[in-house]
Amino acid sequence: MLMGFFPRRGDPHLLAVSMTGVKMGDRMLQIGCADGGRLAAVAAKVGLSGQAVAVVPDDSSALRARKGAAEAGVLVDIEMAPPTRLPVEHGTFDVAVIDDTGGFAGALTPEARVGMLREVLRALRPGGRAIVIGAAPRGGLGALLTRAQGGPGFDAIAALSAEGFTPVRRLAEREGLMFVEGVKPRQA
Q1: What is the structure's pLDDT at 141?
Q2: 169 to each of 9, 41, 120, 137, 146, how far by Cα in Å?
């Protein structure tokens, strides 16, 4: 009887899949990997006619990405490289997901963050979208405790706007995650 009182959680990555808007046939690029299951859930949407590529900075991120893809039975090309030098061709991706849920982008120096966003802009086709998935700011006592610990932070809206993405907007802030989208202009 008590179990009926608590709602059951379905797919824990449904929100991320919905917010990225990845669809069959898309070419999707992800930078960073804090959650291999989330990467695999989004990558699964490209299907056999699309392509999913994850560029990760270190061995632990690569391991998470490989494990998530293997457990979901999803094909993801995983490359280890710095985010400032993405090993991908110019203008080939429909969607680029920057996974900052573990603070990956926020921990970069401002110069490296600019370099990463310029690389994302380079990798996207005209009209392609960049989606930043970050941890939503906490409220109440949690916000006070987090602020006391410090941290570099990452203002995705300001950063994407500064690098030429337009329009840039916050899509949602739910389930502890924040989603920000920027579009590469069709005219250069």
Answers
A1: 54
A2: 28, 23, 17, 16, 25
